[in-house]
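Lab notebook, bench 4. The sequencing result for the construct came back, and we need a structural model before the next group meeting so we can plan mutations. Quick request posted to the team channel:

Model the 3D structure of this chain.
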Amino acid sequence: MAQTSPIQICQLGDLRLESGTVIPNVRMTYITHGTMNPERSNAILSIHGLRGNRDAQSFLAGPGRALDTDRYFVVQPDTLGVASTDPNATTSPTRSGMNMSFPRFTLRDMVNAEHRLVTECLNVRTLSR
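Done. Here's the predicted structure in token form:
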């Protein structure tokens, strides 16, 4: 299996939701597998949806596996709003500190947060196919 990075944190600051509500000081946790190439063109995003956490698909990462780390730099974020007891999971209502006041969000908001992680924290403009 590929070497998994330690848990990393992307500081996004304020995240404006589709509704206009702002979640302040958003931090997205993520792990990576493999190595980013110098052109920053080999990144792929492996998302777990509404179940599991950033490590849910790590079994798929490695040389010759579905998420081939000989070819790709695999990014696995925690998804916005997914509940977690993991103290490092920063995108859940509990871990964000907002608890029951965590705002409603849409799938577009989740994608926007992941897009910001990839573009702002990893400086990747296009994901690999």
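The longest strand covers residues 22-33.
Will bring this to the meeting.
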